Amino acid sequence: MDIKSYLSRKKDIVDKTLEKLVPPAKIFPSSIHEAMRYSLFAGGKRVRPILAIAAAEALGAKTADLLPLAGTLELIHTYSLIHDDLPAMDNDDFRRGRPTCHKVYGEAIAILAGDGLLNMAFEVLSDPRRRKSVPANRLIAIIREISTASGVSGMVGGQVVDMESEGKDIDFPTLEYIHTHKTGTLIRASVRVGALYARAGKRHFTALTHYGEMVGLAFQIADDILDITGKQEEIGKDVGSDIKKGKKTFPSFYGLEESRRRAVEVVDKAIIALKDFDRKANPLRELAKYIINRVH
Ligand code: GRG
Fold first, then answer.
1. What is the 8-class DSSP label of residue 90?
2. What spacing in Å lies between the alpha carbon of 84 and ligand 1's midpoint?
3. CB of 189 within 8 A of CB of 149?
4. 153 vs 1, which has greater pLDDT?
5. CA–CA separation, 172 and 228 (whole Å)
6. Is the per-residue pLDDT at 230 higher than 90?
7. Using CA atoms, how far apart are residues 200 and 230, in angstroms rounded to an integer?
8. Interatomic CA distance for residues 17 and 13, integer angstroms
9. Which pLDDT does position 241 carry in this prediction?
10. Closest by alpha carbon to 192, among 221, 213, 217?
């Protein structure tokens, strides 16, 4: 299969969904809606919603009613990027190839745009219209999955340890904690949202969870490698920012070559996790490979 055309088709569908989820910029108070939209439509790859859709498709489900649920993963991901870029956190000037949200709208509006996106995710998930297609007990399981992955035992926790580790000689288990929590839990949750929506049985759910964990790890190793080898115009942010900030990364422990080897090994494990799935899981298999071959 051609993963590039699959990704581009799904990205279009996700973008159309997101367009409907967030209020138009002209709605009062327009500054906040404009800032939310500025970051949300800055050209993200939409990896997380696409993983949810591909997981549901792997189980043979129709995905029209999954789209708003999958879109919430992108709302939360975008909030985390806006907050991560703030001067109080990573203090970055560029994201997705353009000035960061706070550079354009100021810090206060950027903080609120992040808050707005995060809360909008739960407005969408708990919207009574969702219950027409997804039973309440499954919606609650999905909300629990997303909120836990984004919260202190997931992304927020990972971000805290990441910040507190800057400039310190951390050990590898601490780096692993940062990776699995800061990036990994939301990626795993994306796959599991698709699985919950498609009513995966226990065996399939466990396999998809393992796949999600391996893909999350591969994604982060690839991100660490791109921070060294990427081109600014492709990755859309400054190259070498981890080293400048005194952050330990996969390559700083293992070197570039070994990191690349491990990324391939982890992707192989992700693909092995799908051994009981038929060809409907091919997009998931190709996505895992794409994640370490991407240039941005
Ligand atoms: C502020 C609570 C809070 C958390 C921030 C996600 C995050 C945690 C920080 C971002 C720092 C970073 C570069 C992490 C590496 C992995 C990552 C999330 C990369 C960006 O995600 P992509 O590649 O970006 O999916 P696009 O732009 O395609 O959406």
1. T
2. 8
3. yes
4. 153
5. 19
6. no
7. 37
8. 6
9. 75
10. 213
Amino acid (one-letter) located at 20: K
Strands of the chain, DSSP E: 94-95, 98-99
**Contacts by 121-129, CB closer than 8 A, 24 or more apart:** 121/72, 121/73, 121/75, 121/76, 121/79, 121/146, 122/72, 122/147, 124/21, 124/68, 124/69, 124/71, 124/72, 124/75, 125/69, 125/72, 127/68
3-state secondary structure at position 295: coil
Which token pair is 16?
């159309």
Residue 234 has pLDDT above 70, yes or no: no
- pLDDT per position as a tens digit, 85-100: 999 999 999 998 899 9
| Rg (the chain; Cα; Å) | 18
Q: Above 70 in pLDDT, residue 139?
A: yes
Tell me which residue has tokens 């994640």.
Answer: 291
The rounded percent of the chain whose pLDDT value lies above 90 is 89
What ligand 1 atom has the least distance to the C-alpha of 220? 16
**Protein residue with least CA distance to atom 4, ligand 1:** 80
Residue nearest ligand 1's atom 29 by CA: 44
pTM recorded for the entire structure: 0.95
Note the Cα 273 to chain centre separation in Å. Answer: 20
Characterise 46 by phi-psi region: left (phi > 0), alpha (psi -120 to 50), beta (else): left
Using CA atoms, how far residue 130 sits from 65, 67, 72, 121, 228, in Å, is 8, 11, 13, 13, 43
